[in-house]
Amino acid sequence: MPAVVLVGAQWGDEGKGKATDLLGSRVHYVVKFNGGNNAGHTVVIEQPDGSREKYALHLLPSGILTPTCTPVIGNGVVVDLEVLFREIDGLNARGVDTSKLVVSANAHIITPYNRTLDKVTERFLGARKIGTTGRGIGPTYADKMSRTGIRVQDLFDRHILEQKVEAALRFKNQVLAKIYNRRAIGAAEVVEELLGYAERLRPMVRDTSLVLQEALDRGETVLLEAGQATLLDVDFGTYPFVTSSNATAGGACTGSGIPPTRVQRVIAILKAYTTRVGEGPFPTELFDDNGEFLRKVGTEYGTTTGRPRRCGWMDTVIGRYATRINGVTDFVITKLDVLTGLDTVPVCVAYEVDGVRFDEMPVNQSDFHHAKPIYEDLPGWWEDISGCRTFAELPANAQAYVLRVEELIGARVSAIGVGPSREAIIVRHDLLGEGA
Ligand code: GDP
Ligand code: IMO
Ligand code: MG
C-alpha cells in the first residue's frame, strides 16, 4: 500500500496518537507533516505483565514507539530543538530506541524570540486572544511565509545563520522593545544556542521527500500523521481560532514532499463527542453536568498545557465537513466507552442560525459563531464496553449510535476505540487493506 494520511476530524485530541501507534507495526515510515510541539499525543501501551506504560509525545511522530518503523519529521513541521532533544532523551531513558529518527533539512526552527513573541502577543490581545499553546508556533510559521524563517539546514552554515538571525531580530527587537516593552534579544546568544544543537542534529538531517519517495518506490507503506485537526487548519478551520498550519489532508503533501497521486487512503479520527482547547466557536459545547461528565470520564485535560478541554456532544456537521475537506475513506471513532452510562446521547445533525437551517458548515464565520445545534436524541447504553473487540459484542444502542453517525458523516467507520490502550479497539474494516 502506498501513502496513507491520518488526520483529526474535529478540534484536535481525537486520539490520533493511539491510532498511529496502532498502525505503527504495519507501516515502514510515520511522518509528522505539520505543527510542532503544540501537539500532544498520549499513547498507552499494555505490557506483557499487564501494567500500562503511558507516553506523552509532542514533537516526535507517534511511530517512534514502534521499533520497526522509521519516524520522520517532515518539512512542514516547526521544530523546537530543545524540546526535540528533551523528548528524545526522555524516551531513551525509558528504553525506547530513537536512533532511526529522520529530520527534514527544510523544516523550520522555532527560535527563542518566536517563543517569546507568541506569549507576549497573546497577553497583548487580552480578551481577544487565540488561546495558543505559547510554543512559538504562529510566529514561526509567519516567519516562514515572510521568508525570514530559520531552517534546519541553516544550522550547518554559521555565516548564513548569523545573517538570518540578525535580519530577523532587527525587526523583531523593535516590536519586542517598542510595542511589548520587553528587552531586546541579542543575535549572538540566539546563534550560539542554535549552533549548540547542530552536531547532535546533523546525522538525522536528510532530504526527507527523497527518502520517502524511494520508500514508496520500494513498495513500502508511509503513514502521514497530522498534528491538530480539520477545524484548527489555517485555511479550513474556525479562523482566526486555528493553528498556523495545514492540518488537513492537503497539508500531508506539502508538508512531506509526497505528491497527491501517491496517497491511497485518508483516515480521519473522530471522537465520539467533541472537545476543544483554547478560544473560538463550538456549537455543541456543554456548560452543564453533561459537559462535566465528559470531561471527567474522558479525562479531558490538555496533554500539552494541562488546560481543561471544553466538551460537547458529537457534531456531525463537522464530521461531514471533515469528510469533504480531507476526502476521508475511513473513520476511526474513538472514546465510545466514555459515553457509557447516559440515558440519551444527543447527536448534532444540523445547525439553526437566525431561523435558517444549515446542513453544511456555514461559510460565514459569524453564522458559525451563532449556530445552534439541532439534535437527534439517541438511546444510551449502560454496559461496560471496554472489553468488546467485535462490533457484534457492543450493546445494540452503542451499535445504533455508530451506525447513525456513520450515515450522517458520509464515510465508513472502520474502527472504534473503547479504551485508552493499544488493544482497546474494534476493527470493522482493515485500515491498511486494499480499497476503501
Ligand atoms: P491526539 O492529540 O489526537 O493524539 O489525542 P490526545 O492524546 O491528545 O487525546 C486523546 C486521549 O484519549 C488520550 O489520553 C488517549 O489515551 C485517550 N484515548 C484514545 N482513544 C481512546 C478510547 O477509545 N477510549 C478512551 N477512554 N480513551 C482513549
Ligand atoms: P493535537 O495534535 C488541541 C489549539 C490551541 C489554540 C490554537 C492555536 O494534540 O490534536 P497554537 O499554539 O497552535 O498556535 O494554538 O490551536 N491547538 C490544539 N488543540 N490539540 C492540539 O494538538 C492543538 N494544537 C494547537 O489550544 O486554541
Ligand atoms: Mg492531543
State the main characteristics:
Adenylosuccinate Synthetase, Chain A, domain 3; binds magnesium ion; 21% strand; 436 residues; alpha/beta; 13 helices; binds guanosine-5'-diphosphate; four-stranded mixed β-sheet; binds 6-O-phosphoryl inosine monophosphate; 2 domains; Adenylosuccinate Synthetase, subunit A, domain 2; ten-stranded mixed β-sheet; single chain; globular
Structural account:
Helices cover 31% and strands 21% of the residues. By secondary structure, it is α/β, with parallel strands linked by helices. The longest helix is centred in the middle third of the chain and has 22 residues, at 158-179. β3 and β4 (52-57) form a beta hairpin. It has 2 domains: 3-102 and 207-427, Alpha-Beta Complex (Adenylosuccinate Synthetase, Chain A, domain 3); 108-203, Adenylosuccinate Synthetase, subunit A, domain 2. α3 (112-125) packs across α4 (137-146) and α5 packs across α6. The protein has helices at 16-24, 81-93, 112-125, 137-146, 158-179, 187-195, 198-201, 208-217, 249-254, 289-297, 316-326, 365-369, 396-409; strands at residues 3-8, 29-32, 41-46, 52-57, 70-73, 78-79, 102-104, 108-109, 205-206, 222-225, 263-271, 274-276, 310-312, 314-315, 330-334, 344-353, 356-358, 372-379, 413-417, 425-427. A 10-stranded mixed beta sheet has the order 9-7-5-2-10-1-11-15-19-20, with helices on both faces. Strands 14, 16, 17 and 18 form a 4-stranded mixed beta sheet that branches. The structure holds guanosine-5'-diphosphate, 6-O-phosphoryl inosine monophosphate and magnesium ion. Magnesium ion (MG) binds next to loops.
